[in-house]
Amino acid sequence: MTDTTDQDLGPMTRDRQPTAAEIEAFHREEFFADPEEITAELYPRAINLPAAPFYRRVIRPRVPAPPEYVTLPLTAVGAEERAHWVVAVSRWNVLWEAAQFRRRFFAEEDLPPAMWEIADRGDVNIVFVPRTASRYYEYAPLFHLLPYQAVQRHGLPALRCGQWPYFTELVSPDRFLPVNFEERVSRAWASTVWRHLNSGSALRAFSGSDPIRLLAHNLDFWLPGVTAAIQEILGSQPLVDPTLAEMSLVPLEDGSVLEDMVAGSPRRGCELWCGEADAAEVVEMTVEYADAEGRLRGILDAVRSHRVEDDFSDHWSYARED
């Protein structure tokens, strides 16, 4: 019997470079959901990656500013710069607990110029995501709440679990997503959230110009709500090191202190939701946050009080009957 070693196999194991087809297959496997995981118990799913691998202690403002999403042209970055960008964005985004004060963890040389330009504007709560034609990363929190039936019905691919905040990517999603991805997500989200807006009449009963229907499709309107829901989930997670004493005053290099915040151990990462039941609860939380101080409810009441015939389609509904 011949003893076959790794050296004997030579280019078949150690030295052979993967083919373009093999790389493509690997990227697809990493991007799309495993068919065996597309079940009501496992899909959709999203996770959070903790700050602990980067930071032993973080700061938490007592009144965090709501986050805003800012896109960066990561695909246009050269290979030599990419590692710097990836590390900088990852370290920045995992500091979600620091909110508007996260820039204070970074010196100018720690961030690429485009990031530093924004950080240098002051205490702003920014989540950085890659700039893509599909706008996948801005709307990923909403997309990854969609049940598989809605994904399938609107011609969308089932993707592996989402992550919030954005951490890193292996390949640009534009390679695998339909060119009208944003439009399809808009329709799928509207069909998912509609029962929370008008439980008595189907979406198809209203015209395309109906104000509530337009609101249901407006992904930018819902993004702050889903972000707040995610942060509520994360805010309930235990601390990585509960023995680390919290500091009520954070000293700065110039001798002053940051007030209205505490510093302590970061929270643990977690599974944000897993399966249709979990996702449905987060959709409901998203609606509740969209209705903060009656904002959404006020819009709905105003529209219902001033409906006209053109707001309805040819389909019968209780709303049209009224």
Q: Summarize model confidence as the mean pLDDT.
A: 84
Strand content: 5-15%
Structural class assignment: alpha/beta
Biggest β-sheet description: 3 strands, mixed
The general outline is: globular
Roughly how many Å apart are the termini?
86 Å
**H/E element sequence:** HHEEEHHEHHEHHHEEEEHHH
* Low-pLDDT segments, ≥5 res: 1-13, 308-322
Percent helix range: 25-40%
Q: Report the total helices.
A: 12
Count the beta strands.
9
Q: How are strands sequenced across the largest beta sheet?
A: 5-1-9
Number of domains: 1
Estimated radius of gyration: 23 Å
Protein described:
The chain has 322 residues and is α/β, with parallel strands linked by helices. It has one domain. The chain has helices at 6-9, 20-31, 79-93, 113-119, 136-143, 148-153, 181-197, 211-217, 219-235, 276-290, 295-305, 318-321, and strands spanning 45-47, 58-61, 68-72, 126-130, 162-163, 250-251, 257-258, 261-264, 271-274. It has a three-stranded mixed β-sheet. A two-stranded antiparallel sheet has the order 2-8. A two-stranded parallel ribbon has the order 3-4.
